[in-house]
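Deliverable D4.2, example record:
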Amino acid sequence: MSQKPLLDVLTSLRGVAAVVVVVAHIQITLPGGLEYLFHWQNAAVDLFFILSGFTLYYVYGLREDGALDFGRYVAARFARVYPLYLATLLIAGAFHVWPRVIEPTGYPVGNALLDFLAQLLGVNGWPLLGSGVHWNLPTWSISAEFFCYLIVFPILFHLPRLRNESAIAALVAVSTAVSFLAFVVFFEGGVIDTRVYEAGHPLAYWVAVIRATSGFACGWLIYCSYRNDDRLAGFASRRFTPICVAALLFILSWPANVFPVHAVLFFFPLVILGAARPTGAMRSILLRPAFRFLGDISYSIYVLHILLYILFVNTLELANGWGFRPYALYLLTLVGLSTLSYHLFEKPLRQRINRAFAARRRREDAAGEPPTGSPRAGGSGRDAAVSSLRPPAASGG
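Output generated by the structure prediction step:
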């Protein structure tokens, strides 16, 4: 099977999700009130989670020996995600949180220091270890992904591949429903905001990890279906375009129906499974260079968009409902900045970190020392390939 169409279409879906998150967060106004078409930004983050789970299992699950070189895997994930995460944490702290947010009653210095240390380690979104606060708001989902990288993915990776398609379909429905209910019932935006906040329910602090874990589990399940080439995978492939159209029609109709727009999440497993072997008009659309370009820079778009928004509001003294020109300037600036970030920061640092890890591994091999992490997987090129996958840049609604 060809790897390129799969990764291209999934990358394009990432770009679509990132754009939805941005447009919803900047509260853009469109003619006829059509801005509601972008108000599924919370579900777009769950799309990121499922995409990340599926693509990671796809890359590592295709290894001939079935082993996971944990050290190489963690290095690839660190190289892909952490540098920009760290850079935006420092920028948010230096130019926004410290001079504008910290104050004795709303957000004391002691809270800020503890949050900084937890964010530095990437665990502030983990229940019992962190408060949930994230200075760069979208990075709550990155912290949740760190949890999945280190705990959820390795556990599921070592489970036997499910082969019963009825069981797979049922478990996909269950994992999706768990994520949906966690958000609809227990999500509280104040948990991730930079202020002293006490949630109304203890499970509010678990929502991020529950959604990410459910997404990764769903990604693993549809990967099993894909590898089995079962009827569910065949249906999703043949009906890829109608499934995407059905999801779009659901979004179009949600103001008039009884279901919350977040329920579009239930379409995503089939959308992603279909994107593994895409067919029809939607395949042609998502393989267009513009969508691939947005997918390439989607992580930068996602992580940078709130910081740029704050800069615009504070510098230009703009309230919500900016008008066409400020919105256009913001979007053009975000795309340009994200392009520079991807080509001048993300990729070079990722490549440098991966080369450094590979050089260290070669030195260990030459000295006859055991490798870092789990038993070696033979140095397959698929380990390096994972570093090019786009992580769920995920965001909070």
